[in-house]
Amino acid sequence: ITMQVQFNKRTITPIANKYQDKKTGEDKLSLKTTVLSPVQYSLKPTPGMMPVEQIQAVLIECAENSQEVEIEFTESQSKFGPQMQIYSVKPVPKKTGA
Which of 4, 22, 35, 58 is most exposed, with the fewest beta carbons within 10 Å of its own? Predict the structure, then answer.
């Protein structure tokens, strides 16, 4: 028996912030999006359909360009609030104004 997982799809504008962990001095990455303001979801790239590094790279690039992406995700609640576990990401071509 194979388990079929149904993913939600949504178009989001990612926000990427790089920061330094005060305790360890490690460089960290915070990926977020705002959906129906002011609810902010943490974005958690999750292995599965795409490598985590590839998901992160697309989210960072689109965050820097204020470009929307279509994500396949599941929603969960973490101790820091609502979270989207992202399994695949696809940039949405920017609409060109006339």
Answer: 4
pLDDT tens profile 29-47? 999 998 876 788 999 999 9
Q: What pTM value is reported for the model? A: 0.69
Reduce the DSSP state of residue 62 to 3 states and report it.
helix
Interatomic CA distance for residues 46 and 35, integer angstroms: 20
Q: Which of 53, 89, 67, 51 is nearest to 13 (CA)?
A: 67
Beta strand residue intervals within the chain, DSSP E:
8-12, 15-20, 27-35, 39-45, 69-78, 81-91
DSSP H or E stretch at residue 54 = helix 52-64
